[in-house]
Amino acid sequence: MALFFPGDKGPSGRTHGHRYTVEAVLESQTVDGSGIVADFERVQPLLAAVANELDHRVLNELEPFQGVVPSAEVQAEYFFRRLSADVEREFGGGVRLAKIKVIQEPDAWVEYEP
Question: What is the pLDDT of residues 24-73, one digit of tens each?
Fold first, then answer.
């Protein structure tokens, strides 16, 4: 993903990219008959679908990020909103998305948890 911070006079003001990692935390009050909250094989495609929509794109040009600085914090909120709906559709009300973590660099990340 590429982005820029409008008005920033430093490097962030120029179009640049990051190789982000996005982590999702799901939660449930119970586990299913297999002893799990949610099968990773069902969760990973949901997260990948949202990530693929943004891959090799300039975030500033995409509708959800127009008029805002597409910071990692804003991206985390976007992933949370999108993935929450997908998780609910896939698993019903018993499993919910608890938190999203967007990792920009190994020592730089944000977490979004409403």
Answer: 999 999 998 889 999 999 999 999 999 999 999 999 999 999 999 999 99
Longest dimension (CA), the chain: 55
* Overall pTM surpassing 0.85 (yes/no): yes
Q: What residues are paired with 96 via a beta bridge?
A: 27
Domain of residue 44, residue span = 2-112
Give the CATH number, domain containing residue 56: 3.30.479.10
* Number of domains forming the structure of the chain: 1
Alpha carbon distance 58, 54 (integer Å): 8
Q: Give the residue from 19, 29, 64, 24 showing the smallest Cα distance to 40.
A: 24
Q: Return d(Cα 37, Cα 40) in angstroms, integer.
A: 9
Q: What is the pLDDT of residue 40?
A: 92
Bridge partners (DSSP) of residue 100 are 24, 112
